[in-house]
Amino acid sequence: MLTFRFPMKKAPAGSAVTSETLFDKIGQITDPRKKRGVRHPFHAILKLVILGYICRLVWIEHTAVYAKKHWDKIKVPLGFTRDYSPDATTIRRALKGIDREQLEKAFEEWVCEQLDGKEFTG
Predict the structure, then answer these.
(1) Which residues contact 62 (CB under 8 A, 6 or more apart)?
(2) Structure pTM?
């Protein structure tokens, strides 16, 4: 069974520190696509690609096949709204115009929030 939860550290009681999930951080990335003809949410596609990488699917075509095979299980948790999965071309087009700096910033911020210095020092 697939689960789509990324562990999130809880901030200590009384702490002003908040921790967002990787998916929350990805939600801050701007959709580079033109509104006309968009069928699948941009952030859902990014989540699908991340899921594909976690499953060691480095080719977009393999991610598209995986999505089609498991669509009923992943559609809602990833935020898709259609009854059919995006094909490889759709995924590739969505990723084509992504702002690399925004993606790197979102990932770096998430990693930094997840790291706890006490874990490294014992």
Answers:
(1) 52
(2) 0.73
DSSP output for 28-75: TSPP-S-STT--S-HHHHHHHHHHHHHTT--SHHHHHHHHHHTHHHHH
- Higher pLDDT residue, 3 or 60? 60
For the stretch 78-86, contacts whose Cβ atoms lie closer than 8 Å and that sit 24 or more positions apart, written own/partner, are 78/4, 78/44, 78/47, 78/48, 78/51, 79/41, 79/43, 79/44, 79/47, 80/40, 80/41, 80/44, 80/48, 81/40, 81/41, 81/44, 82/39, 82/40, 86/39, 86/40, 86/45, 86/48
